[in-house]
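Below is a filled-in request sheet from our internal design queue. Each sheet records the structural input a requester submitted and the sequence that came back. We keep these sheets so that new team members can see what a complete request looks like end to end.

REQUESTER: design group, bay 2
PRIORITY: normal
MODE: inverse folding
CHAIN LENGTH: 395
BACKBONE (tokenized):
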């Protein structure tokens, strides 16, 4: 019994020694331990992980607080966390398993989450599986994603290029049927700061250049364009539309991207709702159902230029009593000239011939308005008119 206890203490001491050598990147000590002891190179440690870098816990499972602050990890995971590149190389040269995930993540996932390009390159060059998900398909974990998804979520252009060059599938799906493009589009807006991420825009550009399918839908039938519209991200919306995104695709609730912009235009302080509406309509988006147009005024009454763009997309639309109710008195007074023109035009009188000619040209071009009108040999002022550029007054 005493001999067994003594051996257990010795094993524990050796394991601690091995862990500490990995953490301080003492490659010589790591090599010495591997060659002079019988320690398993793939031994699993319990290490501090207060930032949940290593953990991939299943949603809905309860764990005590002290368990959440630590995670299981093998030597390679530890090396990635502590940037111990030389020790990692020793482990790999001695046959360490590169794709195991004792707590749900492979070393490659961890390297991606800590944005360590050196480790990503090292792991890929030693055979890390670039299309492997966080958890097995048979699990119920809703966070399942490949390293490419992780790179898209965090906006890491260098990692995107590395993964694609090492065989990552550009349209690989996670547990929610999201592609990396859909994920990058969603995470392009920093909600707290209300700022758009240039890195996420670059990731989207790279994925499109690598051949990502722009109209693939996730489990709720939303496309990348729906996500960009929800963020009111005009830069990304233009990128997706110019890549051929369908502006008329509906999600599981029957909402197209233009309805997403309508829902959030008033709360996206750094977004430009009017430009988003203009982009979508110039790429063939379905217009708001006329009997429901009062909802546009409820949502956008403070943005008369956006209202003007939407009204001018119809040959003629007639106002109802709900329109005036939807516009608060203080807003009506602030933009009185504009709203007086709205109610004067949106009555029983027909629109001008100039407007009807605009509608006829746009109807012929359908989804090609944005590119087709710019190709016409017409003055720039007429081009802006055809593309629904707002003028501050409706006639």
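RETURNED SEQUENCE:
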């Amino acid at each position: 019994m005493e001999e067994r206890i003594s051996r257990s203490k010795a094993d524990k001491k050796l394991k601690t020694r091995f862990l500490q050598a990995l953490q301080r990147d003492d490659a010589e000590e790591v090599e010495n331990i591997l060659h002079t002891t019988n320690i398993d190179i793939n031994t699993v440690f319990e290490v501090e992980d207060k930032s949940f870098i290593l953990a991939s816990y299943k949603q809905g499972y309860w764990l005590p607080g002290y368990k959440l602050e630590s995670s299981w990890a093998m030597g390679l995971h530890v090396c990635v966390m502590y940037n111990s590149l030389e020790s990692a190389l020793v482990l790999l040269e001695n046959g360490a398993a590169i794709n195991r995930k004792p707590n749900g993540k492979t070393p490659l996932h961890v390297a991606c989450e800590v944005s360590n390009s050196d480790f990503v390159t090292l792991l890929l060059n030693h055979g890390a599986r670039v299309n492997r998900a966080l958890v097995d398909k048979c699990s119920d974990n809703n966070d399942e994603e490949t390293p490419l998804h992780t790179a898209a979520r965090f906006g890491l252009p260098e990692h995107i290029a590395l993964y694609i060059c090492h065989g990552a599938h550009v349209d690989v799906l996670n547990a929610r049927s999201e592609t990396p493009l859909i994920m990058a589009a969603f995470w392009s807006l920093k909600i707290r700061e209300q700022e758009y991420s240039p890195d996420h825009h670059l990731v989207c550009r790279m994925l499109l250049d690598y051949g990502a399918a722009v109209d693939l839908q996730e489990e709720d039938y939303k496309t990348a364009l729906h996500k960009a519209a929800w963020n009111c991200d005009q830069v990304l919306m233009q990128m997706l539309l110019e890549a051929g995104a369908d502006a008329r695709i509906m999600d599981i609730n029957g909402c197209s991207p233009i309805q997403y912009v309508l829902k959030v235009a008033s709360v996206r302080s750094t977004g430009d709702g009017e430009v988003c509406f203009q982009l979508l309509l110039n790429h063939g988006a379905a217009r708001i159902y006329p009997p429901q147009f009062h909802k546009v005024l409820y949502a956008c009454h403070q943005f008369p230029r956006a209202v003007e763009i939407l009204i001018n997309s119809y040959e003629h639309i007639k106002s109802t009593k709900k329109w005036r109710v939807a516009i608060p008195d203080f807003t009506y007074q602030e933009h009185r000239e504009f709203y007086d023109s709205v109610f004067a035009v949106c009555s029983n009188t027909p629109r001008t011939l100039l407007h009807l000619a605009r509608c006829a040209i746009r109807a012929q071009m359908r989804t090609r308005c944005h590119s087709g009108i710019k190709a016409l040999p017409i003055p720039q002022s007429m081009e802006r008119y055809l593309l629904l550029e707002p003028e501050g007054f409706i006639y």
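SHEET NOTES:
- The first helix runs from residue 2 to 23.
- Residues 58-64, 135-142 have pLDDT under 50 and may be disordered.
FILED BY: M.R.
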